[in-house]
Structure formats: structure tokens, C-alpha cells
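Lab manual, section 2.4: Encoding a predicted structure.

Procedure: take the sequence of the chain (296 residues), apply the prediction step described in section 2.3, and record the output as C-alpha cells. A sample record is shown.
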Amino acid sequence: MVRKLISFDWAIKKILRSKANFGILEGFLSELLFTDIRIIEVLESESNQDSNDNKSNRVDIKVVDNNQQIIIIEIQYSRELDYLHRILFASSTVISEHMEKGNAYSKVSKVISINILYFDFGEGEDYIYHGTTRFIGLHDESELELTEEQKTLYTADKIADIYPEYYLIEIKNFNNVAKDTLDEWIYFLKNEQIEDNFTAKGLKQAQKTLDVLKMNEEERHAYEHHQKQLHHEASLYESTYVLGKLEGREEGKEEGRDEGREEGILISAKNMKQAGIDINIIAQVTSLSIEQIETL
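Recorded output:
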């Protein structure tokens, strides 16, 4: 019998930040990036701390790969229409937060942004998308390359190695057929289960560590509340936040785009408040202040 395991988002919040459990995340990252990854530390910053209300959905970690390159990896979850803008902002924030004062720009950290998406995003049939930065000639379509001196200075073989990389993992697109060890990880992310014949790095430790049955009563109660809240937010997402934004856009055609967008956000906030969603969650989703929401 395959046991139900703790969801990966909860594990990141509560379990995988512990050094004793680094092997689980190291396994996932090694399979995804096709290189052996070793975690050096979980980075602490204002935007990366676990909050008391369990709404933190991001963890930043410093790792070293098989070539001894130091990389900052950001893993996050979210449900937002403007998600591409969010991950761009987040990766830029990671770079600025961990750039030591007085360092030359050549010391900017390499950042890999890994985004596990449990909602429909964009149009495409694949379940893992990888994005990099490349410079292509406008006339001859040739790719701009680094000089040998730049390769030495930046410790990089190509320009894409310097800029942030993005992985979008669209869980819903996975068909539950694990063809390789990376697929085994995606299977776990989608189903919160690990089959006994899976051999991917980190999964055996995850199977032992993330067993729901090992939770005490208080931990299980908090976890069950978290899961119910996720289902509640997902069921209300389209009928409140999405529709509110769309209504705002329609009004924006007549009254001005900015005013319409603001009105749409207010509508979505009001709908969520009437549906009984916690005010702190509404503030996080809409970027409105607690005071603004309380007056609706």
C-alpha cells in the first residue's frame, strides 16, 4: 500500500529547511538540473522567512553544483495571473539581497528560479518549461558569445550561464506516467505519493520523512487546516479574484484602464471577504492594505 505523504509546499515551509532533511531537496534539484547539487545553506532574508501564519511560499537556498559553481536557487508556489512578472521580480530581489556591498558586478550571483505551478498557466502541452537569456543577431540571427577573457572573469561558458534561469513545472499537465527519475519527482509533486519502485535521488528519504502518519496530533491538525485552506482558495479563485480583475478590465474600457483595474481588485477583495476568507490572505493576494479591506 502506497502511503499518503505530506505535500511538497508544506514540507518546504516546515520540514525541508532543516539541515537534516537537505537530502530531499538536493535529490529533487539534482534530478531537475541534471547535475549533483549540494545545499550549503538556506538563505535568510526578509522575503524568505517562514511566517507565523504559514503563508510563506518561497525558499531561497545557496547550493554548489558538480562543477563547484555557487548558485542561488529560489523555489516558490503561487496562484496569480501575473505570475511571469512575479518570478521576474523575485529573481531580481534575490540578486540584490545577496549582492555584497562593494563587490564588482561580475560577482552577481547566478540565480535559478524553480516554480511549481498547481494552476493552469499559459498555453502549452509540456509540464516542464526552461527559460534562459540569449542575445540573437537582428540581421544574421547568430548568437552573441563570450570572449575567452569574459569566460574566465564570469566563470561561465555562455551568456545564458550568467543571467537567471527559470523552470516552470506545470503539475496539471503531467499524465502520471513516470518515464524517468525526474518524472518520478513530478509524480510525487502531483500525487503526494511515492511508488515503491521509484529510484530518483531524494525520494527514499522523502518517503520516510514526509509520512503523514508520523505527525503528532497538533502537526496533523495544522496540516489538515492548511490543505483545506488551499482547496478553499482554489475553488474561490476564479469566482472572485479572476472575475474581479476581468470586471475591472471591462470597466476600464469605459472609465480608464487604471481605474478599471483598481475597481476589479476591490471587487475581488469584497467577494473574498464575503466568502469568509481570512483578511490576511486577501491582503496577500490583492496587495490591498488590511485597512482598505476592512472598509469594504
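Check your result against the sample. Confidence is low (pLDDT under 50) at residues 50-55.
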